[in-house]
From TrEMBL:
<dbReference type="InterPro" id="IPR050268">
    <property type="entry name" value="NADH-dep_flavin_reductase"/>
</dbReference>
<dbReference type="InterPro" id="IPR002563">
    <property type="entry name" value="Flavin_Rdtase-like_dom"/>
</dbReference>
<protein>
    <recommendedName>
        <fullName>Flavin reductase like domain-containing protein</fullName>
    </recommendedName>
</protein>
<feature type="region of interest" description="Disordered">
    <location>
        <begin position="1"/>
        <end position="20"/>
    </location>
</feature>
<dbReference type="InterPro" id="IPR012349">
    <property type="entry name" value="Split_barrel_FMN-bd"/>
</dbReference>
<feature type="domain" description="Flavin reductase like">
    <location>
        <begin position="29"/>
        <end position="177"/>
    </location>
</feature>
<dbReference type="GO" id="GO:0042602">
    <property type="term" value="F:riboflavin reductase (NADPH) activity"/>
</dbReference>
<dbReference type="GO" id="GO:0010181">
    <property type="term" value="F:FMN binding"/>
</dbReference>
<dbReference type="Pfam" id="PF01613">
    <property type="entry name" value="Flavin_Reduct"/>
</dbReference>
<keyword id="KW-0560">Oxidoreductase</keyword>
């Protein structure tokens, strides 16, 4: 069956078992493009972090956000102990960081040279250099559900990042660029084609 958006309904997953639903849910999640973040906090005075896409705006009243962290992730307990965390919105080009901080069991200490020491009210908020933006949060609530903890943060301070910042996006299990960027690229190619066609 064709899978283009204008080709009409697509077949439902044929396997209605619990395992089939789990697999199907995973597949549908992989269709959801998501911004990649590095969630960071202080652990025994050292900055530590993990890659996460389960990050969502919650409210502006009060400014708040939520992150979903696996209950067995070391970062979960580190955030609870610290009582604060930073949502570092990674920029396009920071794929290496995303890979490094998503490796299970690897050392998640953030080297000092990656940190923006001028950001934030104090050193308890590990903000990374070169990010598209950062939300410095105080942990307000933790709700455990299934394998994950939903962690709610009250935003205490922000780093807006450059106005033309491009976030790192994860889609179909790989890092991709944003649509806005493709539009930009298409415009540039059109401009360049026009320029060469007109002999400018
Ligand atoms: C693109 C991407 C997104 C991820 N998003 C999340 C997430 O939202 N929540 C989560 O718990 N783990 C997520 N992970 C997995 C964690 O980064 C990974 O389990 C990490 O090793 C946990 O580290 P820790 O146990 O040292 O805290 C993601 C991994 C990748 C590659």
């Amino acid at each position: 069956m064709p899978s283009t958006p204008d080709a009409g309904p697509v077949a439902a997953r044929p396997d209605p078992s619990a395992a089939g639903t789990r697999l199907g849910t995973r597949t549908v999640f992989s269709r959801c493009a998501a911004t990649v973040n590095l969630i960071a906090c202080l652990q025994d005075g050292m900055a530590t972090g993990m890659t996460a896409t389960s990050v969502c705006s919650l409210s502006l009243d009060p400014p708040s956000a939520l992150i979903c962290v696996h209950r067995e992730a070391r970062t979960r307990d580190a955030i609870v102990a610290a009582g604060t965390f930073v949502i570092n919105v990674l920029s396009r080009g920071q794929e290496e960081l995303a890979n490094r901080f998503s490796r299970p069991g690897s050392d998640k200490a953030i080297p000092a040279e990656l940190l923006n020491t001028h950001a934030g009210p104090d050193a308890s908020y590990p903000v990374l250099n070169g990010v598209a933006g950062a939300l410095m949060c105080r942990l307000a609530n933790v709700v455990d559900f299934g394998s994950h903890s939903i962690m709610i943060g009250l935003v205490e301070q922000v780093i807006e990042g450059p106005a033309d910042a491009e976030p790192l996006v994860y889609h179909d299990r790989r890092y991709v660029t944003t649509v806005a960027d493709l539009d930009h690229l298409a415009r540039r190619i059109t401009d360049e084609s026009l320029i060469s066609a007109l002999g400018w």
